[in-house]
Amino acid sequence: MDQVNPNLEIEYCGDVVVATLTDERILEDEQIQALEGSFMPLIEQTDNIQLIIDFSNVKFLTSSVLGLLIRISKKIYEKNGKLRLCAINPKIMEVFRITRLDKIFEIFSDKDDALVGLKR
User: Fold this and answer.
1) What are phi and psi of 106, to 5 degrees?
2) Contact by Cβ (8 Å): 49, 76
3) Rounded Cα gap, residues 74 and 83, in angstroms
4) Do 50 and 59 contact (CB within 8 A), yes or no?
5) Are 79 and 46 in contact (CB under 8 A)?
6) pTM, 2 dp
7) Domain, as residue range, for 95
C-alpha cells in the first residue's frame, strides 16, 4: 500500500483505486486540505478513474468532509470516472441520509461489495 499522506492509504485492485481513510476523527481543516491535496492530483492524473473511498476507520467527521466528497465526485464525473463509498459508520450514514447524499453517492457496506461490477 502506498501512503500518500498520513490520513490516507492507497491500494490498487487492478484498475480500481481504493483509498482508505485512516483517521478515526476527521475534524480539522488541515486534515481535509491534506486529503484534498492527495485526492485531486490522483483524479487529475487518471482518466476514467474508478475510486473507492473506504470509511471503515472513520467514527467522526465534519460537514467539510461532505463538501470535499462533493468536489471529488464532481472532478471524477468530469473525468468520466466512477466513485463509490464504503464501510460508513451508521451514525455518519445518518448524516448522509439527512442531507440526501445517500441518493447522490453509490454507498456499499464494505470494500468487497464496492468492487463488484468495476473493471479490474
Assistant:
1) -85, 115
2) yes
3) 10
4) no
5) yes
6) 0.93
7) 2-115
